[in-house]
Amino acid sequence: MKRLVVVSNRVADPGCPASGGLAVCILDGLKERGGLWFGWNGEVVASESEIGVSCRRDGQVTFVTMPFSEQDYKEHYLGFCNAALWPVHHYRLDLARFTPESCDAYSRVNRRFAEALAPQLHPDDLVWVHDYHLIPVAAELRARGVRNRIGFFLHIPFPPPDMLVAVPEHEWLMRAILAYDVVGFQTSADQANFCRFLCEAMGGEMLTSDVVHVGCRFVTASVFPAGVCVDSFVTMATQAEAQRRIRWLHRRGEPRINIIGVDRLDYTKGLPDRFRSFRRLLELHPENCKAVTLMQIAPPTREEVKAYADIRHELEALSGEINGQFGDFDWTPVRYVHRNVPRETLAALYRGSQIGLVTPLRDGMNLVAKEYIAAQDETDPGVLVLSRFAGAAEDLEEALIVNPYDADEVAHAMQRAISMPKEEKIERHAALLARVRARDAHNWMEGFLEALDAPPFSWSASFSMPAPKIDALRPWTPTAHSSAAPSGRATASRGLRSAAIPHAPSIRPAEIIRTEPRA
Ligand code: ADQ
């Protein structure tokens, strides 16, 4: 088995219980194969000169980490990653902020990561890069002679082409992404958006349903929906401590119905709209007063970015308003918990809640929806109310699917969940649990690594016509960012067609003759 090298913005701490389910799954995979996890250690040092690489071994796994400088943290992490790419990828162009400094910092951090990582790689390693913070890492590694198979998984949505062009440096980013062999997405909609950009703006051509050819590169672009470790949620939700918490949730005198929401406090998660929907439920169905409570757990995140501070204030004001308008001495309609909660507690709260309310305005996947399903009692399950704009909705069709922008629709769905017959709940839950199991965290990881470890795309195995004269394995040479960024900035408002890459592809789409797709 080939050694696995994982590259991500944050490296999970094996001793930290707050690490998410996916991180735990990746760590298990690394332990099984032996491997290396490379990334930011979460620390910030005063200046670049203080940045050093630390190496730590734990059994079969080596952790190689670096801090950010204060400037990197501000301009790369809070800036380009979370004030530019994050909003654009979540269709929030209104919140996106672009500065040349932040893009330079993004380029600089990715270059520094590649410089530190390249000497650690063995020729046979499979390299798996995660998420939007690290798009140019592969191009930087290729520029340093790395010829390994390198894959990239995008945890967040991929926007339609006419939104992506709002990022002034989109051309540079899209050229950089071609340095990967496999690019993974959460949903088929994301994959389609990505391929559309490559084909419409960069002269690419789909050779099969998931192999796209652009210039001298063949890139596999496939869907690998992220999942959760179902069994660990079942275990956590059924242990004695969980039962104690559930009894506490339903102690005498407390409301019968608990609605739970669990999200980082992020504007993409639709929390103010969710609170307004809950208010609408109480207005439209006053019989729910004193019978239903919304418990929203929303730990702080990226608070230094203004949009995140704004959402916090909005939410605090809304929960205060609703509690003031409807609450009584013996009933608090909205319980809002603004902190991290141990995963065992979350599992118990999911199981003790009759409705899981997952209503993001846009989300790559949303693992909370899957965790909620995994934690339910199969003989008396709760109902999942799920936004149609969560990636999870592409698969979890037995949930009550809602438009999170429509408060009345979400309120009706909550009311439907409240009055749903037990048989229907059991039937829906069984179907959902089967789907969550079929696409759990283990399958997600295995599926991606299988694609990454597959032989590179072969023209002769796929087509009966002779291949055009190109060297698909020729290392991809990134254009110096210093020259790409200004040209990208200049084309930003000129529409999609004008975003074609400056270096024309070596084969024109018409020259590619398709026969049968690859088996
Ligand atoms: P996130 O945006 O972080 O992840 P999500 O998929 O909901 O979103 O995962 C959040 C995780 O954090 C869940 O495992 C949840 O249990 C945990 N969590 C949330 N609130 C918590 C709290 N108060 N205390 C403890 N744990 C808490 C990104 C993308 C998603 C994609 C994932 C995985 O934005 O769309 O599903 O990556 O690919």
Helix content: 40-55%
Low-confidence stretches: 470-519
Mean pLDDT: 88
Note the total helix count.
18
> What is the count of β-strands?
16
Please state the overall shape, judged from the principal axes of the Cα atoms. globular
**What proportion strand?**
15-25%
How are strands sequenced across the largest beta sheet?
Answer: 3-4-2-1-5-6-7-10-9-8
User: What compounds are bound to the protein?
Assistant: adenosine-5'-diphosphate-glucose
Radius of gyration: 24 Å
- Look at the helices and sheets and give the structural class: alpha/beta
The major beta sheet can be summarized as: 10 strands, mixed
Cα end-to-end separation: 24 Å
How would you characterize this protein structure?
With 519 residues, the protein is of the alpha/beta class. It is built from 18 helices and 16 strands. A ten-stranded mixed β-sheet has the order 3-4-2-1-5-6-7-10-9-8, sandwiched between helices. Strands 13-12-11-14-15-16 form a six-stranded parallel β-sheet, sandwiched between helices. It is globular, with a radius of gyration of 24 Å. The chain binds adenosine-5'-diphosphate-glucose (ADQ). The site of adenosine-5'-diphosphate-glucose has 21 residues, from α1 and α13.
